[in-house]
Design a protein that fits this description.
The chain is mainly alpha-helical and 510 residues long. It has 3 domains: 94 residues, Fumarase C, Chain B, domain 1 (Orthogonal Bundle); 226 residues, Up-down Bundle (Fumarase C, Chain A, domain 2), CATH 1.20.200.10; 68 residues, Orthogonal Bundle (Ribonucleotide Reductase Protein R1, domain 1). The chain has 20 helices and 8 strands. The strands form 4 sheets. Strands 1-2 form a two-stranded antiparallel ribbon. Strands 3-4 form a two-stranded antiparallel ribbon. A two-stranded antiparallel sheet has the order 5-8. Strand 3 and strand 4 form a beta hairpin. The chain starts with a helix and ends with a helix.
Length: 510
C-alpha cells in the first residue's frame, strides 16, 4: 500500500488538523463548557490580575519585556484590578476566562498583550489565581469556625450546672450536663480549624514559573514571583505544581468534616426542640413559619445546616471521581475552580449560621430534669457501686441492676426510687443469695447531680472538670484566631506591596 493509499479514506484524502483551531468554538461547546468556566470567573478574577502583574514585573526585572511594553501592560492590569469581576467582559464565546481577558487586552493594547504569555501557559495563571482565592477563604473559614466554637464554649460554661439525660442511640444513657454535651462539638471544630490551617500551608505555595510541565528557559528562578505574591515558598516539582489536586481533596474533606460536625449538632437540636422533648427552643429569627398550619414554627436553619453537609459530601465525592483520570488532564482542575471555592463559601456561611443558632438558643432545664428524674440513667453508677461495695464482678452487677430496672419500670418506680431491698430480690433470683442491702441508703448513689459531681477526671462532666476544658479551649481558640488573622495580614501586605510596585513602575520608569 502506498503512502497515498494510507492517507485516503473512502476515496477522500485524509488531512489531519494540526496547530490551533481556526474559527470560533461550536455553540454546543460554548454552552456546555466555556459558559460553565466563565461562571467561575468571579473566584479567579482578582487572582488572575495579581498573577499577571507579578509575572510582568518579573519579566521586566529580567529585562525580557521591553520597558515601554511593561508599563503599558501594567497600566492596563492595574485598571482591570479595580474592575469588579461582574463588570469585566468575560464572554464564553471567546473561550474560558483567560481567553476573555486576552481578547480584551488585545483590543486595548494590541500585540503588547502577548507578553503575558512569555514563559507561562494559561493554566499557570489560573493555578496561581485559585490559590490566591483559596487562601483568603481558608482564613475566613477558620475565623468562622472559631466563632462558632467560642459561642458554643460560652453556652457550655453557662450551662455547666444544667442537668441533662445524655443520649446514645436516642436512648437515655447517663446523667450529664447540657454544658458538657455542647462542649463535645467544640473539640471537633477545633481539630477541623487546625486542619484548615494545615491545608492553608499547602495552598500558600506558588506554582508560578512552572511553565507547562518542566519549567521555562525564560525564568531560571521561581522565588521572585512567589515572594511578590506573598506565597510562603514554591512547589518544588514543576509538573506537580501544574497538576496536583491532593490538597484540594483534603480541603474538601476537611470542610465536609466540619459541616458533618455541625450537622450532628443541628440534628440533635431539631430533636431536642420538638414538643416531645422540649429541651431547647430556637430563637424566632432562626425558624420559619408554616404557611398552612398556624401552630407550627419550623427549625428551618437546622434543615439548611443538615442539607449543606450533604452538599459538601457530594462535592467531595464528585471531585474525587473527576480527579481519578490520568495525570496532566484538565478535567482535574476545570471543575475545581468553581467547586472548591463554592464549597468553602458554603461552609463559611453554615459555620456562621450555627454560631447564631447556638448563641440565641433557649434552654429548658426543667424539662431536662423531668426526663432525668423519670428515667434510669443512674443504672451504670449503681452497678459500679455494687462492684466496689460487694466485690462482685461487673457482669453480675450489670445483670442484677438490669433486672432491678426492669422490675422498677414495670412497677412505675423511677430510677431514684430504687431501693436496696429491690436489689436484694434481683440478686437472690440471679445468684441464689441476698446481698444484704435491704437497709442500704442508695440516695447519694442514685442522685444525678452527685453522679455528675463525681466526674472530676479530665474531660468529665463535673463543673470543675468542665471549667478546666473551657480554659484550655479558650486558649486554643485564641491561638487559632490569631494565626488566621496573622496570615490574612501577611496576604494583605504582599498584595498591597505588589500593586504599589506596579504603580511605581508605571509612573516612574527610571
Amino acid at each position: 500500500m502506498t503512502s497515498t493509499d494510507q492517507n485516503t479514506t473512502n476515496g477522500t484524502a485524509w488531512d489531519r488538523q494540526g496547530g490551533p483551531p481556526r474559527g470560533g468554538p461550536a455553540p454546543e461547546l460554548i454552552e456546555s463548557g466555556f459558559a460553565l468556566e466563565n461562571a467561575d470567573a468571579s473566584f479567579l478574577h482578582r487572582g488572575l490580575n495579581l498573577a499577571d502583574i507579578a509575572h510582568v514585573l518579573d519579566l521586566g526585572r529580567r529585562a525580557i519585556v521591553p520597558p515601554e511594553a511593561q508599563r503599558e501592560l501594567l497600566a492596563l492590569l492595574l485598571e482591570v484590578t479595580d474592575v469588579p469581576a461582574e463588570e469585566f467582559p468575560y464572554d464564553p464565546s471567546h473561550g474560558e476566562p483567560y481567553n476573555s481577558r486576552e481578547h480584551y487586552f488585545v483590543s486595548r493594547i494590541g500585540d503588547v498583550a502577548g507578553w503575558l504569555h512569555a514563559g507561562r501557559p494559561r493554566r499557570e495563571a489560573a493555578r496561581v489565581a485559585l490559590r490566591l482565592h483559596l487562601r483568603r477563604q481558608l482564613t475566613e473559614l477558620v475565623a468562622e469556625s472559631v466563632r462558632f466554637a467560642e459561642q458554643t464554649v460560652d453556652r457550655a460554661e453557662e450551662h455547666a450546672h444544667t442537668l441533662l439525660p445524655d443520649q446514645t442511640y436516642l436512648q437515655q444513657a447517663q446523667p450529664s450536663t447540657f454544658g458538657h454535651y455542647l462542649l463535645s462539638f467544640v473539640y471537633s471544630a477545633v481539630r477541623d480549624a487546625r486542619r484548615l490551617l494545615d491545608e492553608l500551608d499547602w495552598v500558600d505555595t506558588s506554582p508560578g514559573g512552572a511553565g507547562c510541565v518542566n519549567g521555562t528557559r525564560l525564568l531560571e528562578d521561581r522565588e521572585p514571583i512567589a515572594a511578590a505574591l506573598g506565597f510562603d515558598g514554591v512547589i518544588p516539582h514543576t509538573r506537580d505544581a501544574m497538576w496536583q489536586v491532593d490538597g484540594l481533596i483534603h480541603i474538601l474533606a476537611t470542610a465536609a468534616s466540619l459541616l458533618s460536625n455541625l450537622s450532628k449538632l443541628a440534628e440533635d437540636l431539631e430533636i431536642f426542640s420538638s414538643s416531645e422533648f422540649d429541651f431547647v427552643d430556637l430563637a424566632d429569627a432562626f425558624t420559619r413559619s408554616s404557611i398552612l398550619m398556624p401552630n407550627k414554627r419550623n427549625p428551618y436553619s437546622l434543615a439548611i445546616v443538615r442539607g449543606a453537609s450533604g452538599v459538601l459530601i457530594g462535592r467531595l465525592t464528585g471531585f474525587l471521581a473527576v480527579t481519578k483520570s490520568p495525570s496532566a488532564r484538565s478535567d482535574n482542575l476545570i471543575f475545581a475552580y468553581g467547586e472548591v471555592p463554592r464549597a468553602l463559601e458554603l461552609s463559611t456561611r453554615i459555620a456562621r449560621l450555627m454560631a447564631g443558632v447556638v448563641r440565641t438558643l433557649r434552654v429548658n432545664p426543667v424539662r431536662m430534669r423531668e426526663e432525668l428524674d423519670r428515667g434510669y440513667t443512674q443504672a451504670t453508677d449503681l452497678a459500679e457501686y455494687l462492684v466496689g461495695l460487694r466485690g462482685v464482678d461487673y457482669r453480675t452487677a450489670y445483670v442484677v441492676v438490669g433486672n432491678t430496672v426492669r422490675a422498677a419500670a414495670r412497677a412505675g418506680i423511677p430510677g431514684a426510687g430504687i431501693t436496696g431491698r429491690m436489689i436484694d430480690e434481683a440478686a437472690l433470683a440471679h445468684t441464689g443469695s441476698s446481698w444484704g442491702l435491704a437497709e442500704e441508703d442508695l440516695s447519694s448513689v442514685l442522685d444525678p447531680w452527685q453522679i455528675v459531681e463525681s466526674r472530676q477526671a479530665q474531660g468529665g462532666a463535673a463543673p470543675a472538670a468542665l471549667a478546666r476544658m473551657v480554659a484550655d479551649l479558650r486558649t486554643d481558640l485564641g491561638d487559632l484566631a490569631s494565626e488566621a488573622s496573622r496570615r490574612n495580614a501577611t496576604f494583605d501586605q504582599a498584595e498591597q506591596s505588589l500593586l504599589s510596585l506596579a504603580r511605581h513602575t508605571v509612573t516612574d520608569p527610571a
